[in-house]
Amino acid sequence: MNKTIIAMALAASAATAGAAEFRLPEFDTVTLQNGLTVYLMERHEVPLISVRAVVKAGAVNDGAQPGLSNLTGDALLLGSKAHNKTAIDQAFDYRGARIAGGAGAESSTVQANFAKADAPALLPLFAEIVQQPSFDDTELGKLRDRKVNGLKQAKESPRNVAQTYYRAMLFGDSPYAIPASGTVNSVSALKQADVQGYYQHYYRPDNAAIIVVGDFQKAEMRKQIESLFGAWQASGPAPAAQDNGKVKADKARVLLVNKADAIETTFLIGGAGIARNDPDYVPLQVVNTVLGGRFTSWLNDELRVNSGLTYGAGSQFATLSQTGTFAISSFTALPKTEAALALANKTYQRLWDKGIDKATLESAKAYVKGQFPPRYETSEQLAGLLGDMYANQVGRAQIDNFTKDVDGLTPEKAKALIDKHFPRTSLQTVLIGKAEAIRDIAKTYGEVTEVEITADGFR
User: Fold this and answer.
1) Going from the N-terminus, what domains does the chain have, and what CATH number goes with each?
2) What's the rounded Cα separation, in Å, for the pair 314 and 34?
3) Residue 20: what pLDDT?
4) Domain Peptidase M16 C-terminal: where (predicted)?
5) Average of per-residue pLDDT across 433-446
6) Labelling 23: which of 275, 303, 444, 447 has CA 20 to 30 A away?
């Protein structure tokens, strides 16, 4: 089966459940002499190439300087030693190409998308950006100021920061609690030397992968990557593996974030989740679809459609490389806070009180099978998936067994997954709203810690 037929099969599987088995297209994995991992996946349907550099470094490595990885990741695009920011922007814009950078909890990424014909001009420039950033101090200062202003504005909308408060609450003093974007005070204090030091320590070939997906010949592209990245050398010992933390949920707790002028209450309820490479990752997406993963889910039906308590409600497993979190999330008008919280908790308990019947499960399975393949049709999407697999140590078996894992899910297996992975006791709750009005409600859900949303940080 050639790659064109594979692409057609993937698209068809979205429309007809069970019509085609979803499998990841073939790709080569190469390790260069300097330790750099290279993924090469040919896709000849359209004359486009997506290239991405993934570095295993993110907020968990920020230590006492939250936001440093995020600033460093974005600052890569401020210019290389040979080309300033204006020259780089013009080179990509002139050709209708795109380049972006950034950092999350555990990895940092530089990605570019361009036409096959533009690869000779833009691929070397991409390599420059990754290996020889200038971190121009003037441009860095502008970028830092923009980030600080963004942090100040983010707390005006609680839904922007609810997950950050939630993770900080669940992980306490461990690295997973560090906010990826940093705080106003921490980012304001970052200097050029901090960014340069972070780059030197973590951006190195034995801690990174280059992923190329698109219209090229693998043998030729491998030579190009070796030519462009083969001289990249690491300095000093490789970063040591670290324990990034576990969810603290020994008792029911509530983090009450006071926003004195709030007319709504934003809330999250949950606890520990799963790692991205957990073998139950795929079937759990099906179970969560029933609870809160689509518009017709139990949570949205109860909190929005049937009661009118909110404009939307859902649930999600947010995965990390070592663990993860689970949360029900919604928001409601201040006077409806008590009713919305009670209904959200009651609806959640349906997982155990009634379970998931066969008809409901089959509907969710068809939905998930229709949603999953279209996420990985374009070269850019596939490059993102390979990057995710590299950063989170996900084997291709999880992707290739997607259809089998969904089809094999029964009500009995769903019940076992619910008992194993969905937190039922000692739930952790974040409430962001007018504390004066909801303080007594908060007390009914656990031990309360109260903070001001205007305070720096997230705990």
Assistant:
1) 3-11+24-229 (3.30.830.10), 253-452 (3.30.830.10)
2) 45
3) 60
4) 192-366
5) 98
6) 275
